[in-house]
Amino acid sequence: MKHPFISHNKVRMHDTDMAGILYFPRIYRFAHDALEDFLEAEGYNFDYIFKKNNFVFVIAHSEANYIVPLHVGDQLEIQLSVESIGTSSFTFHYNIYRITPENKELAGNAKTVHVTLDTDRKKIPIPDKFKIHLKKYFLDEI
After folding, report:
1. Is residue 15 part of a domain?
2. What is the pLDDT of residue 54?
3. Which of 19, 90, 123, 140 is buried deepest, with most CB atoms within 10 A?
């Protein structure tokens, strides 16, 4: 059975509004931080991607769902999985859990759809080498 990629984070003061509750766009920070952790774990740090790689990928679509409020200091586990792999695009799904000593509660989720581009910013098929990394986290059910 395949498992999602796991990343950890926490809600910081700058992530919240005046009431101390997560400011809504910050859910994307947690998703993007998990994406960066995934890329580094797979050997694709951003220096490599932007300076030594022959392709990039950009976000073409994103969406998020908020299930429970998050507050300053909440410990988070972000589970990144690959929802779909197409010819030139792929979709990441992120489940964001609030972790306490007693509980692991789904707090929200997000989805980002990415398109692969060459260095001239023209759409290209996902390179086979990168597709191998994506397939490791492709889950039959999300």
Report:
1. yes
2. 85
3. 90
Q: What is the pLDDT of residue 28?
A: 97
Write down the pLDDT at residue 49: 74
Domain of 32, CATH number, reads 3.10.129.10
Are the C-beta atoms of residues 56 and 117 closer than 8 Å to each other?
yes
Q: How many domains are there within the chain?
A: 1
Domain assignment present for residue 12? The answer is: yes
CA atoms within 13 A on the CB side of 23: 10
**25 exposure class (CB count in 10 Å sphere: 0-12, 13-18, 19+):** exposed
Rounded CA separation 93/65 (Å):
11
Residues in the chain with pLDDT values less than 70 = 1, 141-142
